[in-house]
Amino acid sequence: MTLTVLVVNGMSERLFAAKPGYNLLPVVAGPTPSDARTLLLVVIPLYLVEFLILTVPLACLMLVANRLVKTTAYTQSVMTLGTRFGGFRMTRRAVVPAMFALSSGDLLLSFVNNWPFQSDSTITGVLATTVLDPLLSLLSSMVVLPVALAILMPTWALDDSGIVSHLKPKQLENRRPPDTEGVGRWYNSYIGGFALLGYPITMFFRYFYRPFFLMAQPMTAPNIALSVFTTIGLPLLIMSFVMPVIILNELTLGWTTNIVRRLARRLGAREVQIERIAPVQSEQTPQSDDLKLS
């Protein structure tokens, strides 16, 4: 997070030195560096408060919606989970919100003129491609990130609670494989699909097509390397602002998971555990169930 703050502060200072009269964020009084710092100071408390207020209600709403949508063929269960969830998995959980925010933030810049950030057609050339564009990408992502978190934080609570949907026993009489999926993962797959599709498209347009084809910037090795570095580095900077929310999620697991599990049980979910998968012996019928009631 410190690196993100330093990068944003450095780019805003450079932009202010080149264009002192440019007002990046009109709703905040002051020069461009002040606008950027104010936004960064506001967003972290906003993300944490958003987690505490919205995660459990939205997780419960998603749980009910999933049960209604899949009620004909699927039933819900509460699965016993392991306890390990290390730093690598926490970091990987931050990838989708960061990519979603970058993709949506770029759409915000493309379709909503002069809000919340003011555009300036006089900023062109290297200043636009190496300073203004990355700065706007970072700050617009910070603005959109609450939307991404509002959608994804409830899916974390559902996954951490072990809520799964699986085929009803009668459905296994049909010629179809057993299907077990976490309710949170079911939602996350749609959101992650948008992020993984939208991120490379928006980044290619802003940092490759726009500078090299629309602005006629020389396609030299250093310029291409800078575009690649920016495309890869921006998600990492945004992820640093998602990590405090993920850490807060880990600290409040006892509270969030208990509420979600209680609601799931009231909706008819039963406790299940993973059954050990073993080779099928000859002359025996294969077992198709992968869940066992406890």
Q: What sequence of helices (H) and strands (E) makes up the elements? A: HHEHHHEEHHHEE
Number of domains: 1
In the predicted model, the low-confidence regions spanning at least 5 consecutive residues are: none
What is the CA-atom radius of gyration, in angstroms? 23 Å
Largest sheet: 5 strands, mixed
Beta-strand segment tally: 5
Task: Describe the model.
- 66% of the residues lie in helices and 7% in strands.
- It is an alpha+beta fold.
- The chain has one domain.
- It has a 5-stranded mixed sheet.
- α5 (125-161) packs antiparallel against α6 and α6 runs antiparallel to α7.
- The model has no long low-confidence stretch (mean pLDDT 87).
List keywords for this structure.
about 290 residues; alpha+beta; 5-stranded mixed beta sheet; 5 strands; about 5% strand
Describe the secondary-structure layout:
Blueprint: H1 2-18, H2 32-69, E1 74-79, H3 87-93, H4 95-111, H5 125-161, E2 163-167, E3 180-182, H6 183-214, H7 221-251, H8 253-266, E4 270-274, E5 291-293
Parallel strand pairs: 1-4
Antiparallel strand pairs: 1-2, 2-3, 4-5
